[in-house]
Structure prediction request, 379 residues.
Amino acid sequence: MAQEDMTTPKQPPPLNIPHSDLSVKVSCIDSTCRLDIPMGPFLQPDYIGKDRLLGPCFAFLIEHPSKKPILFDLAIRKDWEKLPSYSKWVELKWGIHVEKDVAEILKENRVDVDGGAVDAIIWSHHHWDHVGNPQTFPHSTSLVVGPGFMAAHTPGYPKNPDSTLLESDFEGRSVREVDFEQESKGLQIGRFNALDYFGDGSFYLLDTPGHSVGHMCGLARTTTKPDTFVFMGGDASHHGGEFRPTEYLPLPKELDPAPPKRRGHGICPGHLLADINPHGSATKPMYYVTKLLSHDKEVADWTIDGLGEFDAHENVLLLLAHDDAVVDPPELDFYPKPLNDWFEKGVGKRVKWLFLGDLEEAAKAKEKGEKAFSWGTYP
Prediction:
């Protein structure tokens, strides 16, 4: 049943994705990582019943029809106790659980990792929960990083005792730093500078600054008739509530099926969610990123607004690296199954509003006449 919106949506800005007859095979790898960290310092407001930021760490395998596969992100390394910041996370009592390295998962599925089957690893950015362990790949597998990355984040530890990266991540390995101004030839997709990675319109890197120096997202064409895409969001955002709802994608009048925590109670009225929106709005996001989670908050907000523009196009499936709404239980096909038929299976529509299940307790509080949220005083 089609969902009716609480207000008439505006037409989203055109994305202006160039035409191509080529697509790539895309697989979302559930890397076996699970995070459990405080939410308030990173996202605001503080909703009743939602004080932890939970989530997986996704990596993506991108397989071109005539070129070697590449990876977008590597999640968390299994031996994360070797990282420079280990003692800090223990002190903060962050929940970090990792069963396997991404390379191990690929090998279990007959990918000849040690033989150099993977051409390159693209890091969305420099943070520990995305860079994984490049040493589990041979030196023939190169690294691809975003603009300004090398100057801002290298050398690694121990050469730079303050670095969160390991110098061994780079040793003996080719590193390519993308220069969008020089390499994109003026190409913009949505509001972002873009690089046609393979030169054939099948996969793009997008310049998505704000969270970290050198942050990039990926955009893969999954089918050509019709054109459909998977947007690999990295840490441009951490929760669907940062870019939903918008004026292009308002809250629906009814959520059917309801978010998971409300199932068994019937259809969820959209007005319950609008009532707990910080602005009492059906067209403004539920959450805002804090300065603590941003290298440059103003730029990060601009990038998040851009994500909302992509997300409003029904032929784009936007997946964040830590999107806990689509795991436990899985709401889409994970590796070794490909994601290419996501549109045909209706995945985009099914998962769009699942994040609202996080706000069930806040909605209940509002119904009782109690406060649904409060604003923290974080930097």
